[in-house]
């Protein structure tokens, strides 16, 4: 049996695209299935070696301009051409996994599968954001993209040997269920294996952390106002701020990190790429995690860092309108920002510090209840394919409708 992972955004160590591919490969290896990956054409040598990654795609899933209707067709053509070349060399797999699928990837893959008469792979995918990656699906400005998404996923359903799809939040799943002709479940994207941390010692000052890729929608721009606000009012707290801006839409924000680093010894600033182990170690140091994501982008979206905080058992601060944080608000381990500015973030942090003990207790209980279903889903896909006949006649089997899963 052959599997293939497709993620045009995986290009460097660290981050959730790298972690997703690495986790998928590890789970599949345990099932006896090799799963090489097609990634960014600019993937560095370590990614190529560690993920058995073939550099393929010149555009990331985050690379669209959405400037004209023709831009979608051009992106599909370019992505499809690169995908076809890579799959001619690798051969058609039995299972294709897209840990971050958009309508360009879906349409390009649909056209490639339509050309295959001998094998119709099953497709497993995650829909992490709406048709516009920088706008919430509720934004009227993004509504014009619904048609291209509907067409792309209908084409994929018609060309694949079944589609299994997931979103990270119920709100995003509700949106996509009206666009796609297959069922959409709710499950976090592939990430680091769930592991609750060892209970932290009560001694020592509280550590407030913000960690990850610092693109504009992640809200790092709120920190220069929020951090001094908290430092002036809480004389023990420490901040650990980690943000990678290279290769993001926030490269011009480097001076902001310099200003944060100049706030004194109670503020540590890091900008290096972290390995999975380093990332988990930094995350586990946090007593309170800041996720000041822009609700204009993240109103329905999930967050990989939030999922990791849930697994580890860390209280969070996030905008009250971000769907990914709702389990924390409901479970008593999240503090909601009442507005979206630096002052609101600072106020929420102080509230979190005042309530840190009950927040931490609720976070630990929530971590103990985490269900990591990725292994079960992959095992089901592999077992379902193991006995499935392949070949030309399956394309014409009566009842083989796009809604088959």
TrEMBL record:
This is Glycosyl transferase family 1 domain-containing protein. The lineage of its organism: Bacteria, Pseudomonadati, Pseudomonadota, Alphaproteobacteria, Hyphomicrobiales. It holds the Pfam family Glyco_trans_1_4.
């Amino acid at each position: 049996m052959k599997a293939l992972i497709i993620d045009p955004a995986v290009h460097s160590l660290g981050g959730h695209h790298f972690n997703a591919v690495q986790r998928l490969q590890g789970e599949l290896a345990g099932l006896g299935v090799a799963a090489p990956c097609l990634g960014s054409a600019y993937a560095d040598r370590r990614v190529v070696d560690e993920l058995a990654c073939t550099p393929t795609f010149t555009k990331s899933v985050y690379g669209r301009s959405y400037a004209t209707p023709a831009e979608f067709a051009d992106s599909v053509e370019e992505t499809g051409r690169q995908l076809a070349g890579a799959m001619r060399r690798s051969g058609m797999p039995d299972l294709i996994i897209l840990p971050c699928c958009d309508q360009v990837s879906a349409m390009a893959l649909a056209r490639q599968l339509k050309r295959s008469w001998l094998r119709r792979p099953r497709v497993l995918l995650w829909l992490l954001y709406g048709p516009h990656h920088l706008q919430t699906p509720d934004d009227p400005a993004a509504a014009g993209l619904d048609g291209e998404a509907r067409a792309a996923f209908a084409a994929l359903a018609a060309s694949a040997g079944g589609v299994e799809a997931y979103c990270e939040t119920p709100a995003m799943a509700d949106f996509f269920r009206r666009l796609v002709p297959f069922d959409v479940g709710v499950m976090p994207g592939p990430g680091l294996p769930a592991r609750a941390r060892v209970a932290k010692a009560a001694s020592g000052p509280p550590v407030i952390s913000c960690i990850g890729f610092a693109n504009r929608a992640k809200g790092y721009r709120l920190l220069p106002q929020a951090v001094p606000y908290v430092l002036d009012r809480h004389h023990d707290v420490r901040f650990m701020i980690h943000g990678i801006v290279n290769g993001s839409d926030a490269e011009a924000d480097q001076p902001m990190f310099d200003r944060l680093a100049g706030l004194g010894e109670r503020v540590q600033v890091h900008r290096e790429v972290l390995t999975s182990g380093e990332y988990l170690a930094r995350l586990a140091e946090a007593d309170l995690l800041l996720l000041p994501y822009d609700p204009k982008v993240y109103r329905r979206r999930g967050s990989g860092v939030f999922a990791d905080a849930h697994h580890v058992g860390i209280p969070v601060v996030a905008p009250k309108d971000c769907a990914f944080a709702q389990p924390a608000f409901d479970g008593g381990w999240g503090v909601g920002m009442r507005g979206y500015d630096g002052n609101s973030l600072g106020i929420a942090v102080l509230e979190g510090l005042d309530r840190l003990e009950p927040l931490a207790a609720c976070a630990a209980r929530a971590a103990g209840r985490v269900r990591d279903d990725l292994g079960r889903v992959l095992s089901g896909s592999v077992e379902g394919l193991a006995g499935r006949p392949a070949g030309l006649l399956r394309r014409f089997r009566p009842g083989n409708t796009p809604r088959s899963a």
